Amino acid sequence: MPQFNWNDTKNLLGKLTFKKALNGAKVFASFYVSRISNKPVQWGYPISISFEPTTSCNLRCPECPSGLRAFTRPTGMLQQDFFKTTIDEIHKELLYLIFYFQGEPFLNPDFLEMVQYASSKSIYTATSTNAHYLTDAVAKRTVESGLDRLIISIDGTTQEVYEQYRVGGNLEKVLQGAKNIVKWKKELNSKTPFVFFQFLVVKPNEHQIEAIKKLAKEVGVDEVRFKTAQVYDYATDPNQLIPTIDKFSRYKKNVDGSYTSKNKLVNNCWRLQHANVITWDGLVVPCCFDKDATHQLGNLKDQSFKQIWKNSNYTQFRNDLKKSRKNIDICANCSEGASVWKE
Predict the structure, then answer these.
(1) pLDDT digits (tens, 9 = 90+) for 13-68
(2) pLDDT for residue 202
């Protein structure tokens, strides 16, 4: 289950309006009606959307298409005018905006201006960063932008361990970036952003779980949260990333040494019901598991967002999932979409 922080939750609830609450109720109701009827029902519009600031990244993480430079889709930067047009259309229903899909958001020079624009529309804004670009000046602008949540990916407490997954990364830069944010929150007397270290638990770093908790306290971030790793070739785990600590693994080890997913893969998905992803160039895809945008449900250059949400491509994808989720490639290695909603 998601972790709870009262101050962060209070801030999120402060963004609610009657229209957003009504939209949320429609989405929840349609999810349960869909489960009971075994037919795709979609009332309302997304509660949450992920907007991709860029596909560019400074690191080379082994399970990331951006890091591996393995995209078949074009790379580029989200443009402000395009972003604002979409936000203007959907902000009255939208509660939560994630400025992240692939890439490092702070590489987009207009990133913080877009955060500020979304914040001005009373949308809860969040992003995830490797923190290499959080200089003192950028940290100050980040706090001033109104960003509500800042996730700092830090997968080791020593450079030797950190760089085994965050290939090309510099742990000292990450820690200094985090310290800069903490400093400016105090200087500006700001309660936001809610800052936490996100520790992706993999085999090379699992022995540092207690150490990262201690380091977080020393730096002054609000929390540490642990994330399980999605491994593409999980059956054989060629990069030896699947941790030995069972609760931090999405996979279970078989007697022959291979792995299988723990997820039951029921034909329901809460993520598909309440959220989706928009790439930097306007492609609308079902969720963050479609990293290469192979399931394109629409293009914002051709249709408005609300038209895409109700179009035939979306309807067909929802129908396909209700029939057989395991036959959809991006759903077959997913432990997130249905995990919260027990059958």
Answers:
(1) 999 999 999 999 999 999 999 989 989 999 999 999 999 999 999 998 887 777 66
(2) 93
CA distances from 203 to 129, 240, 245, 255, 312 (A): 22, 7, 9, 19, 43
CB 107 within 8 A of CB 54: yes
CA 289/CA 299 separation, integer angstroms: 18
Other C-beta atoms closer than 10 Å to the C-beta of 203 total 19
Cα–Cα distance between 227 and 202 in angstroms, integer? 9
Handedness of CA 155, 158, 161, 167 (dihedral sign): positive
Strand ranges across the sheet with 48-51: 223-228, 194-201, 149-153, 124-129, 96-99, 48-51, 275-278, 283-285, 298-299
pLDDT band at 199 (very low <50, low <70, confident <90, very high): very high
**pTM (global) more than 0.85:** yes
Beta strands in the chain (DSSP E): 48-51, 96-99, 124-129, 149-153, 194-201, 223-228, 251-253, 259-261, 275-278, 283-285, 298-299
Q: Describe the chain by its helix, strand, coil percentages, rounded to 5.
A: 40, 15, 45
- Of 232, 243, 259, 237, give the one whose Cα is nearest residue 204: 243
Q: Average pLDDT, whole number, for the chain?
A: 91
Report the Cα–Cα distance between both ends of the chain, in Å, rounded.
15
Candidate from 142-156, 197-211, 279-293, 316-330 with smallest mean pLDDT: 316-330
Cα–Cα dist 202/242, whole Å:
6
- The answer to whether 272 and 314 are in contact (CB under 8 A) is no
Task: Please check whether residue 259 is in contact with residue 252, taking contact to mean a CB–CB distance below 8 angstroms.
Answer: yes
Distance, in Å, from the CA atom of 213 to the CA atom of 210, rounded to the nearest integer, reads 5
